[in-house]
Amino acid sequence: MRSVITGTGIGVPPHVITNEALSRLMDTSDEWIRVRSGIQERRYAELGQGSTDLGVIASRNAIADAGLAPGDMDAVIFATMTPDHVLPGNGPLLQTALGLGDIPTFDIRQQCSGFLYGLELADLFIQSGRYRRVLLVGAEVHTAFMPWHLGWDTLIGQSTREITEAERAENTLSRDRTVLFGDGAGAVVIEAREGEAGLGTIRLHTDGAGAGVLTMTGASFKRRPFVTVEQIQAGETVPVMSGKEVFKSAVTLMPQSVREVCAASGLAVEDLDLVLVHQANLRIIEGVQKALGLPPEKVPHNIERYGNTTAATLPILFHECRQQGLVRPGMNLVFTALGSGLHWGAALYRT
Length: 351
What we know:
Blueprint: E1 2-11, E2 15-18, H1 19-22, H2 30-37, E3 41-44, H3 51-65, E4 75-79, H4 90-98, E5 105-108, H5 114-128, E6 133-140, H6 165-172, H7 175-178, E7 184-193, E8 198-206, E9 214-215, H8 229-233, E10 240-241, H9 243-265, E11 274-277, H10 282-292, H11 303-306, H12 313-323, E12 332-339, E13 343-350
Parallel strand pairs: 4-5, 4-6, 11-12
Antiparallel strand pairs: 1-7, 2-3, 6-7, 8-13, 9-10, 12-13
Helix pairs in contact: 3-4, 9-10
């Protein structure tokens, strides 16, 4: 019995935000952003639109793509670092919105590696015989991290006021992070099937010693109260990242994981037809590609159009590769990601 992806879908919000648009709010430019990240544009959610809402859109599309109805699902795994609420998780909200019945839902938080960890859980559920159909969702609305009181609402047409010089200067303080993120969702239906196709070797790792290289210090339950106006004003609710450390870890650990699953599966890296890398930064994607010695066409990317959508990058990329005819029967494909935690790994998939 194999765990086979039988349906994919995405949910992306309507507002396309270009680099030039961001330059109206902070000291940046299209060239500055492209050189450092490869990103040209990203999507921003509507005010009041959460990661559950985008996940619902992606899930409906994935379930329909699989030729199934919502009631056919046996369990839900929802990966996100930007839930609608501290509690409850997104799983129950999505369950109700889709009319799934009282099936179990699992909310996981491995950030950029969330979808990868979700694949492992879904495979374990299916291999154990516990569930036959699992809906796996990765969805994020990162715009909640942005200092909307400093003019971000103008980007989605909610305001026409001019940004003050003081606001522009404050926005610039977090430009190294805020220009990277976008909103979006991807979902897959995973079913138990006989045959050669399906998930193969999966290797996951965590090293908490690296947790500080990508974290958020504000909105912490170690504080009393857990969030304050002062924290927000100090930018403590915007993620903090050590860019050099993240880059070094990503271009080292993701290729290691790909080699690990290949070795465990009796494959050489050159036997892989596609490697789908978490879409955090085009320079990282290119670094992984070069470290593996693969041609660019085997390591596709769409970060130019979406930015980093964290847990959603891999399912969105996989869906688009299917739509573009890049995924064909009999291929060896690997998903790989690294994110805050540090969590990283890779999963082999036979199409």
